[in-house]
């Protein structure tokens, strides 16, 4: 892509990431790319009949990728590696799924359900879940009743900026919106600021020209962020049929 994200410069079909092992026989999806030091780290979901796992690829140039193997198992989706190493360790946001969630006590600020957890690693291969909770669904709103990570956290003057998705129950899959939080630079389990007004909402006008192909709507799913000077270049999927680029002024997060 061009530096502003608005022009496709080249498409490298010859370097496509394709299933290579039994645990990828149903496909590889949901890539998230972080640059830590001089290496690029890409997490993906690998799917097969026996498991739904998170796999890691590494690269020195973001073009040729090496499969490192499974790093998280048991439907632990939306793994996002921080673009930096607080305390000299690799950090990641994760989102384990399950069939049973115990309710919080009456009067709690939080809603039971999938939440954005944290994990640390000495080498980006072996991960230990962090003891403190990460970002949890707030009881005061249904708009984020389900949630998960969006973009890899990047360091700003205020702390780690993370964009994440919240899902409001509606229809088949719900309404997906993008929200943001600022995490403490030394202990990312501490949330310093969260904005409950959506940063991005679905934009039906973007998919109107291909409406006859649509099989769901009301979805914007953010997965990438890059520094654009006085703004961030944010990449999202729109209704699973289009790629969306949004320029978000940095002043929004000040």
UniProtKB/TrEMBL annotation:
<dbReference type="InterPro" id="IPR023296">
    <property type="entry name" value="Glyco_hydro_beta-prop_sf"/>
</dbReference>
<protein>
    <recommendedName>
        <fullName>Glycosidase</fullName>
    </recommendedName>
</protein>
<comment type="similarity">
    <text>Belongs to the glycosyl hydrolase 130 family.</text>
</comment>
<keyword id="KW-0808">Transferase</keyword>
<dbReference type="Pfam" id="PF04041">
    <property type="entry name" value="Glyco_hydro_130"/>
</dbReference>
<dbReference type="InterPro" id="IPR007184">
    <property type="entry name" value="Mannoside_phosphorylase"/>
</dbReference>
<keyword id="KW-0328">Glycosyltransferase</keyword>
